[in-house]
Hints:
Elements: E1 11-16, H1 32-45, E2 49-54, H2 67-73, E3 85-90, H3 93-100, E4 106-112, H4 115-122, H5 126-142, E5 146-152, H6 165-176, E6 182-187, H7 194-201, E7 212-217, H8 224-238, E8 242-246, H9 266-275, E9 279-280, H10 285-299, H11 307-310
Parallel strand pairs: 1-8, 1-9, 2-3, 3-4, 4-5, 5-6, 6-7, 7-8
Helix pairs in contact: 1-2, 1-10, 3-5, 7-8, 9-10
GO molecular function, one term: lyase activity
Family: Belongs to the HMG-CoA lyase family.
Protein name: Hydroxymethylglutaryl-CoA lyase
Amino acid sequence: MSESGPLPAPQVELVEVGPRDGLQNEDRALPPAVRAEMVGRLVAAGVRRLETVSFVRPDRVPQMAGAEEVMAAVPTTAADGAPVTHVGLVLNARGAQRAVETAVGEINVVVPVTDEFATRNQGTDVDGMLEAAAAAVEVARGAGLGVSVTLAVAFGCPFAGPVPTDRVAAVTERVLALGVDELAYADTIGVGAPSQVVALGDLLPTGAGAPRLRFHFHNTRNTGYANAWTAATLAGGRGAPVALDASVGGFGGCPFAPAATGNIATEDLLYLLEKGGVAATPVDRGQLVATAGWVSTALASPVQGLLGKAGEF
């Protein structure tokens, strides 16, 4: 609520990605038990949807090894009985098969929109990734899981440079044909601006049966929060909530994208939304700040978010 009273604000669903994207680029790999404790702390703070693990090769991303162990130890309901949705990131049918054998309720398939990034990150081109995504979707649907797809480097690619909206539109059309529940546009290297947020948001249809819209922002060039605010304003025109990824403490980055540091911090994002009168998933920011400090100690890495340093106003 703002100081001037309640506003007819759009709605935002928080997706906490700290346990996955927040940890995958850190030098220190946390044991599964510690990662599960992190998840438990976030759930205790009020988080109800998390990207908890990724089912990828441990030799490629050792920070994500032991996904099954993590999932065996995390809560699937909160203390108040509310369900907790755990999202597992996958790249192919093999990852999806691993996911469906755990308590994951939803898979998220990453599909880069440029061949250059897809080849370096996943060893195939965009066409190959779309084929892999289709196979992963089939596995997930067979197990009754929800499905989202994240379009990586949708705002710009570290290898191909600027990405035209038409290019993202073409990949979006092919992903929509898979029948996904949600589609996310990711600013993987933090180069995006609010005008791009609007342009990409317009690519997704609205109305009954349309997939949900989600965004994933990094604050690498200090535009992440402006982009998040712009994304939040899209909800009013869509008549449905917009989901925003954020990472407690602002930890995160992509190990396959040079200088792709810093997710937007969950606690900073929620402060911004509340002060702007935007209703979002209710989470205790004080507990988030405490969790960010705990993660910082575990990683021996400084907190990137600012709310814990500046304090509430």
